[in-house]
Design brief:
77% helix; mainly alpha; 111 residues
Length: 111
Amino acid sequence: MLILKTFGLYILTALAEIIGCYLPYLVIKQNKSVYLLIPAILSLITFVWLLSLHPAAAGRVYAAYGGVYIVVAFCWLFLVDRVNLTVWDITGALIITLGAAVIMLQPDFST
């Protein structure tokens, strides 16, 4: 259960970061309302808060999070940007997921 909770927290963290960066992108690149910067700021604040909830050492959290972030970014690319993923995208995402899982699931020898 802890694994699912941790993985879910990583996914929420990645979504908060992506949304916090995507909204300013819309303002800058697509001339959307500057008011989108308000939810962007709130989303980035949420991202930092969620990142702080992970129980492992910060560097390990960032390393594993990076892998999950890439997979969530590909999901965003497909679902929001409507870009078809290539075999290379999917293969890379699978490799990255395996690497993130190795980092997240390592045994705790500190006790």
